[in-house]
Design goal:
Blueprint lengths: L8 E2 L2 E3 L2 E3 L6 E6 L4 E7 L3 H19 L3 H17 L1 H12 L3 H23 L6 E3 L4 E9 L2 E5 L5 H14 L3 E5 L6 H6 L1 H5 L7 E3 L4 H10 L5 E5 L2 H13 L4 E4 L5 E4 L5 H12 L13 E5 L3 H13 L19 H16 L3 E4 L5 H4 L14 E4 L6 H4 L6 E7 L2 H9 L3 E2 L1 E5 L3 H10 L4 E4 L14 E2 L8 H4 L4 E9 L16
Parallel strand pairs: 1-5, 8-9, 8-11, 9-10, 11-12, 13-14, 13-19, 14-17, 16-17, 19-20
Antiparallel strand pairs: 2-3, 4-5, 6-7, 7-22, 15-16, 18-21
Bound molecules: 1,4-dihydronicotinamide adenine dinucleotide and magnesium ion.
Length: 507
């Protein structure tokens, strides 16, 4: 098959308001993970394409920053409306490209993304500073300003949701943006760029360049025209990006991986806990979620009962075509991730974990449908372990594979929960209000859910600790991620006062 094959879609970069191929003409295959076949091609961009995108963003910045915030808000609201109007198409592209089920993409990510854009639109004209009265004729004030061009690197598990959230925040704050989506699944984001002009956003305000991490991603991180970076993805790549950014003394905000504990106490509503634990690791993104509840800590008195219920719940899940609206769980997003998860399925038993249910992969999972035979299927799987130091208990697997760990006391549960380099999220299931508050305080993570799980909302700050990232996005504070603080000193009296060494400080 060639690039001109009419059955294979071709997507373009979005630079300065135009759809453009990579300058070098290179293309990368995008595979439909439910079939294992190439369905689209995307630009394999290089440093020259990133240069073009940064130049367009720099050119657009002065006018965008001086656009009145209320006008920026209007344009973002128009973008939100355009996304909603095209929700069916965008969700279908994403479900095809990364295997995320329509229930998630059409049911959550795209409409939620539109509401996230609108939320950030509403924040655009509410950025205020402080006034500091220093006595006499001197007034100091603070103002939050955009950085300039921000570089945003996003992963493949929920590209549209991340694109809408990050770009709308950066734009609301007055920045212009260059996005490098993941090479494994970026068709939905490239397709969504057509809506930017429809909404009236100026050319160059948002640019998207597809390509590999080491080439296009690093070119963006290293680019001297980029003032600030946001990275979502693996902890290993986050470390690499941070090292590169340090050379240019650029700040990176990081949203990284996790190995989140989901704790089932013996006083929990076991029906609710079963659905919540399954929703945290199996359904939706097939466990390919940064907040996946991948360690299920179960109090010993309900261990048998709870794992039995979870097995029955998992058996009833519909695994198959992600574009069928009734499907609960799709395939893994691409071959590399499929290989990684299968390797952990082999590793677990070798290091002493026992597979309690699941464990099958490939065509066995989806049965008779020949169209799906080549897809990257992994069954909902639960392993039992007694030692949290096993690699399957410590490393992010990023698939529908959870580890069940028994515990006796509440303190023991928190000790196991926090015995990880990660600190993204955690959950606890209990009917005790006292214990709920203790769990919130005890779990060392950026988000703790009680009697619910895997809830992310644009109005609630979200971020990690330890190796899971740093400052939170979302919520009113989330906008600060895209703003830099300036202090202004204004002497209102005449004649100007001489500098006063008694004011202290140095500089
Ligand atoms: P990754 O972190 O390497 O990829 C994320 C993004 O970073 C992609 O856009 C990629 O092209 C870009 N990138 C890669 N190398 C780069 C570099 N040197 N400079 C700049 N950008 C670069 O993740 P990958 O390799 O796709 O997945 C591996 C594992 O990472 C997964 O199995 C999972 O455990 C974890 N992961 C976690 C995510 C999360 O949200 N917590 C999201 C995606 C992956
Ligand atoms: Mg794909």
């Amino acid at each position: 098959m060639t690039a001109a094959d009419p059955h294979i879609a071709e997507f373009h970069n979005h630079i300065d308001g135009e759809a453009r191929p990579a300058r070098g003409g290179g293309l990368l295959d995008s595979v439909d993970p439910s079939t294992g076949r190439v369905w689209a091609r995307v630009p394999d961009s290089g440093a020259a394409d990133v240069d073009d995108a940064v130049a367009a963003a720099r050119a657009a910045f002065p006018a965008w920053r001086s656009t009145p915030p209320a006008r920026r808000a209007d344009l973002l609201r128009a973008w939100s409306a355009a996304v909603l109007a095209h929700a069916d198409d965008l969700a279908a592209i994403e479900s095809r490209d990364n295997g995320r089920v329509l229930k998630e993409t059409r049911g959550g990510d795209v409409p939620g993304g539109a509401l996230n854009i609108r939320y950030n639109a509403e924040l655009a004209d509410k950025v205020t500073g402080d006034t500091v009265h220093l006595g006499g004729a001197t007034v100091a004030s603070t103002r939050y300003e955009p950085f300039g061009v921000v570089g945003v690197i996003i992963p493949w598990n929920a590209p549209l949701a991340m694109f809408f959230a990050k770009v709308s925040g950066a734009l609301a704050a007055g920045n212009t943006v260059v996005v490098k989506p993941a090479e494994q699944a970026c068709c939905s984001v490239l397709a969504a760029c057509g809506l930017l002009a429809e909404a009236g956003l100026p050319p160059g305000a948002v640019n998207v360049v597809s390509g590999t991490g080491p080439v296009a991603g690093e070119a963006l991180v290293d680019h001297p025209g980029v003032a600030r970076l946001h990275f979502t993805g693996s902890t290993a790549t986050g470390r690499r990006v941070t090292r590169h950014a340090a050379a240019g003394l650029k700040n990176v905000s990081l949203e990284l991986g996790g190995k989140s504990p989901n704790i089932v106490f013996d006083d929990a509503d076991l029906d609710a806990a079963t659905a919540g634990v399954a929703g945290g690791i199996f359904t939706g993104g097939a466990g390919q979620a940064c907040v996946a509840g991948s360690r299920v800590l179960i109090q010993e008195g309900v261990f048998e009962e709870f794992t039995r219920r979870l097995r029955a719940h998992a058996a009833a899940l519909r695994v198959g075509d992600p574009r069928d609206p009734s499907t609960d769980m799709g395939p893994l997003a691409f071959a590399g991730q499929y290989d990684k998860v299968r390797a952990y399925l082999e590793l677990g038993p070798r290091e002493g974990a026992e597979i309690l249910f699941g464990g099958r992969t490939g065509r066995e999972v989806v049965g008779a449908d020949p169209a799906l035979a080549g897809g990257y299927w992994v069954e909902p799987t639960l392993m039992a372990a007694t030692d949290n130091r096993l690699r399957v208990c410590q490393e992010e697997i990023f698939g529908p594979v959870a580890v069940a760990l028994p515990f006796r006391t509440e303190d023991e549960a928190y000790a196991i929960a926090n015995d990880t380099v990660y600190g993204l999220a955690g959950g606890a299931w209990t009917r005790s209000l006292d214990r709920a508050h203790r769990a919130v305080a005890a779990i060392d993570a950026g988000t703790v859910w009680i009697n619910t799980y895997r809830r992310i909302h644009w109005a609630v700050p979200f971020g990690g600790r330890k190796h899971s990232g740093d400052r939170p996005s979302n919520g009113a504070e989330g906008l600060r991620e895209w703003l830099t603080l300036k202090a202004a000193w204004i002497e209102v009296g005449a004649p100007p006062a001489p500098p006063r060494p008694t004011e202290g400080g140095a500089g």
